[in-house]
Amino acid sequence: MAGYDKEQFDAEQKRQTQALIVAMNRAAMETAKEFDVPMMNALAGALVALQAEMLSKVAAGRTRKLLRDAMERGLNRQIKKAEQGATLAEVIVLGGSTQ
What we know:
Mean pLDDT: 87
Structural class: mainly alpha
Strand content: under 5%
């Protein structure tokens, strides 16, 4: 980003990421109230569709691959973070068990 050094860029990215996490979680929780039984599968499908839509807007080739790789690394980091207890999600299991 023009006018940003690496430290400023990283801080701004972190700030925007956190704001979007909060907004998207709030929207997902509010929308889930419209369903008798909200499904994680539906939320996962929606997130994948949004990712695909965003990636499709980046020119195919090296830039898209770099962004996709960064998204994969970010997903792996967030999974590890969530497994350590830092999570916004609540899972309610109906008639089954989680693994």
